[in-house]
């Protein structure tokens, strides 16, 4: 049996950053993930997707972000059990937990952090007759490799961040980009909406709203789409159709662990430490819910930090922890005293 301090379920960005924060507190982590490589959705679905809301990065590729997080946590030598799904959590009499996977691997830890993102997921597909026949033949639900669309005509459907961000990115890759949305208003970031409108003015994006795609044309491969706009129907030529309507999340085995679930997410106490209704089990990142919850990577990083502080206090009752800034102490200086920290700050100022 594998022994650790924190068992982290989910190797997405939030789970990986939790390893870093735990490492600063001299706590060991072991990560379990059903995918064959770390990164979660970012690696599996959007490896080339640009991300704009990571502090210090005007834009960073999803795959690059995961690579950087892996480099950041390498010094703390976390354990990984990949390509295995966590199926059960059993609390022991001594307060520890044993997490068992579908392949029989068991990991025992003093706390469990569920960082499973949206859980298992599948794309929300538009209701278009015979769309399955064109999947992988011009219909793509994810953009894994933007070069696939180099110098091609593409049509993106959707009104959220993914549809906006990929329209912006692919405007410099594809020969022709058309964005179709059933409303005039978009659900994505205002800055992205402004960029799309600006690209439309520059004739780099064709914007069709309010409209819906109702049919696909082509002999075994997508060659065109049928679009309905304000009661009128017309066709446009395209090489690829990319419907980006989000994902249908499924919690999978998580739903059977006795946790309090609300709208397919785990309820947590955000006033303190993102602990669930079971003491010692936490939920961080997109998998959790609480009043005012925002599903942003940035928020997951914040939740991971407070979770680690809480686990430290549970593992070290009565021991006073002095927070020191890594800009002063470095990642190896977290066992010193307040006096040493103050000296370091003064020295840095001088």
Describe this structure in words.
The chain is of the alpha/beta class. It has two domains: 2-121 and 247-339, FAD/NAD(P)-binding domain, CATH 3.50.50.60; 125-243, FAD/NAD(P)-binding domain (3-Layer(bba) Sandwich), CATH 3.50.50. Helices cover 25% and strands 26% of the residues. The strands form seven sheets. A five-stranded parallel sheet has the order 6-3-2-10-22, covered by helices on one side. The protein has a four-stranded mixed sheet with strand order 1-9-8-7, with no helix packed on it. Strands 14-13-12-18 form a four-stranded parallel sheet, with helices on one face. The longest helix is centred in the last third of the chain and has 19 residues, at 297-315.
Specify the biggest β-sheet: 5 strands, parallel
Inertia-based shape: elongated
Number of helices: 8
* Fourth-tier CATH superfamily name of the largest domain: FAD/NAD(P)-binding domain
CATH level 1 class label of the largest domain: Alpha Beta
**Portion of residues within helices:** 10-25%
Question: Per DSSP, what share of the residues sits in E-state strands of 2 or more residues?
Answer: 25-35%
With strands numbered from the N-terminus, the spatial order across the biggest sheet is 6-3-2-10-22
Overall average pLDDT = 88
Distance, first to last CA: 50 Å
CATH topology (level 3) name of the largest domain: FAD/NAD(P)-binding domain
How many strands? 23
Tell me the count of domains. Answer: 2
At CATH's second level, what is the architecture of the largest domain?
A: 3-Layer(bba) Sandwich
Q: What structural class results from the helix and strand content?
A: alpha/beta
Q: What would you report as the Rg, rounded to the nearest angstrom?
A: 23 Å
Task: Show unreliable segments.
Answer: 334-350
């Amino acid at each position: 049996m594998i022994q650790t301090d924190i068992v982290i379920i989910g190797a997405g960005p939030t789970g990986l950053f939790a390893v870093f924060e735990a490492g600063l507190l001299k706590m060991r982590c072991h990560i379990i993930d059903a995918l064959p490589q770390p990164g979660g959705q970012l690696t599996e679905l959007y490896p080339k997707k640009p991300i704009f809301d990571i502090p210090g990065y005007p834009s960073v590729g999803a795959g690059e972000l995961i690579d950087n997080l892996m480099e950041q946590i390498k010094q703390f030598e976390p354990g990984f059990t990949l390509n295995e799904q966590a199926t059960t959590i059993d609390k022991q009499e001594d307060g520890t937990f044993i997490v068992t996977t579908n392949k029989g691997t068991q990991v025992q830890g003093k706390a469990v952090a569920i960082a499973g993102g949206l859980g298992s997921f599948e794309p929300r597909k538009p209701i278009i007759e015979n769309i399955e026949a064109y999947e992988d033949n011009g219909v793509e639900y994810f953009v894994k490799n933007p070069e696939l669309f180099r110098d091609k005509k593409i049509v993106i459907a959707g009104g959220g961040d993914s549809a906006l961000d990929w329209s912006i990115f692919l405007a410099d890759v594809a020969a022709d980009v058309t964005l179709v949305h059933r409303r005039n208003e978009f659900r994505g970031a205002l800055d992205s909406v402004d960029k799309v409108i600006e690209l439309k003015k520059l004739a780099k994006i064709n914007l069709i709203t309010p409209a819906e795609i109702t049919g696909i044309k082509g002999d075994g491969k997508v060659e065109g789409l049928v679009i309905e706009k304000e009661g009128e129907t017309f066709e446009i030529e395209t090489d690829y159709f990319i419907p980006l309507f989000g994902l249908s999340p499924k919690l999978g085995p998580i739903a059977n662990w006795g946790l309090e679930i609300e709208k397919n997410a785990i309820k947590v106490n955000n006033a303190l430490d993102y602990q669930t209704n079971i003491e010692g089990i936490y939920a961080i990142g997109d998998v959790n819910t609480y009043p005012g919850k925002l599903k942003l990577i940035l928020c997951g990083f914040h939740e991971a930090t407070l979770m680690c502080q809480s686990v430290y206090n549970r593992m070290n009752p009565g021991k006073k922890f002095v927070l020191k800034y890594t800009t002063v102490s470095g990642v190896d200086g977290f066992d010193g005293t307040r006096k040493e920290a103050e000296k370091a700050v003064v020295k840095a100022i001088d």
